[in-house]
Amino acid sequence: MQWALVKGRVTSTVKHESLDGQKLLICQFLGNERQPVGDPVLALDKLGAGQGDIVMITSDGKGLRELLQHNTSPARWWTLGIVDE
Amino acid sequence: MQWALVKGRVTSTVKHESLDGQKLLICQFLGNERQPVGDPVLALDKLGAGQGDIVMITSDGKGLRELLQHNTSPARWWTLGIVDE
Amino acid sequence: MQWALVKGRVTSTVKHESLDGQKLLICQFLGNERQPVGDPVLALDKLGAGQGDIVMITSDGKGLRELLQHNTSPARWWTLGIVDE
Amino acid sequence: MQWALVKGRVTSTVKHESLDGQKLLICQFLGNERQPVGDPVLALDKLGAGQGDIVMITSDGKGLRELLQHNTSPARWWTLGIVDE
Amino acid sequence: MQWALVKGRVTSTVKHESLDGQKLLICQFLGNERQPVGDPVLALDKLGAGQGDIVMITSDGKGLRELLQHNTSPARWWTLGIVDE
């Protein structure tokens, strides 16, 4: 798990069927002092997070496949929580 | 999942049999502002992406083995979607 | 396994149910000379580690799901030990 | 999958039994322009690659265990193909 | 698999039961020219490696659980071989 700042969304018309109707956020990892670090990932979001939110994200595929009720979803990163201010 | 710019293709004559007939793209990861970041990976593509396209890629092996209908394909990165402009 | 310095905690009201009641530490990786290196991760802690402690952390999901007795917990990093001074 | 330049070999007398008789290459990752990037890994090779070759490598353990017909081989990186010039 | 220089040991009194009686080495990754690169990891050692040795290490959890005869050991990195001079 890492924490990350939501920078925006990405949309895609040509895509894998498991991503239909899913919201994808561009997430920027944060350092100890909440400064941006590293490279962004695209995370699937079911919590209602939006631009400017700080979120906890994970790359666990097993939990995500359960969340989506899709046994072979290839998505990886997703939001686990919205960090309190 | 990350987003990446397609930089070109790579070809290989001597290779693992699971890669026969597969298109492999050289993909450069992108940052928040779509600037190039990090090191490239080789991603298998079934969506018809080409040089200059921005793609979503994942390293999920389980979904890929389903896509290829090859139970033990060792390939990792592949294209999940082409990002809308 | 890596070693890391505990920098603080993070709290989240909106979160995945598997994280209810769990303590999450912000952990900073350490180098050979115990200097901070790389970017922090959020690690679940059951050992009672606190700010300023040096901990051993792992990203093993299987062991964590056993620890939490939660078959599909998506959490990844957690504390395996507190390093002796 | 990444591409990498073969820099040499490594030998080891004291080692895990699954590595007996296996060739291990020191592989340097390459960037978009085939410049060296990042840190090397040790990759098992069955294709006959040698110093100066550009290879495709993967970290897939499942495929490797099949290749070696060794159910619990702990090796990770191995060569999938030799890139055409 | 990577190669790494053994920099020392780490001890921990408060720890996960699967680590009882195990030796943990601080391992520094090495580059092509055997120069130190990246950040250290803690690797479990059964080969008798000591400070100053160059070792091959892997992050394979399945093989390690077999080695330790512990089905849910959360440890990750361990030594596969000692590199010949």
Task: Give a verbal description of the structure.
The structure is a homopentamer of 85-residue chains. Chain A is mainly β and 85 residues long. Chain A has a single domain, classed as OB fold (Dihydrolipoamide Acetyltransferase, E2P) (Beta Barrel), CATH 2.40.50.220. In chain A, 9% of the residues lie in helices and 41% in strands. The first copy, chain A, contains 1 helix and 6 strands, in the order βββββαβ. Chain A has one helix at 61-68, and strands spanning 2-9, 12-15, 23-29, 41-45, 54-58, 78-83. In chain A, strands 4-3-1-5-6 form a 5-stranded antiparallel sheet, with no helix packed on it. Chains D and E meet through strand 2, strand 3 and strand 4 of D and helix 1 and strand 6 of E. Strand 2 of chain D pairs antiparallel with strand 6 of chain E.
Instruction: Tell me the number of helical segments of chain A per DSSP (H or I, 4 or more residues long).
Output: 1
Largest sheet of chain A at a glance?
A: 5 strands, antiparallel
Which two chains share the most extensive interface?
A: A-C, 25 and 28 residues
Rg of chain A, alpha carbons: 13 Å
Oligomer: homopentamer
Strand fraction of chain A:
35-45%
CATH superfamily of chain A: EutN/Ccml
The order of strands across the largest sheet of chain A is: 4-3-1-5-6
**CATH hierarchy class name of chain A:** Mainly Beta
Query: Which outline of chain A best applies?
Result: globular
Low-confidence segments of chain A: none
Structural class of chain A: mainly beta
| Average residue-wise pLDDT of chain A | 89
Distance between the termini of chain A: 18 Å
Fraction in helix of chain A: under 10%
CATH architecture field of chain A: Beta Barrel
Kindly give the count of domains of chain A.
1
Number of strands of chain A: 6
Could you give the order of the helices and strands of chain A?
Answer: EEEEEHE
CATH topology of chain A: OB fold (Dihydrolipoamide Acetyltransferase, E2P)
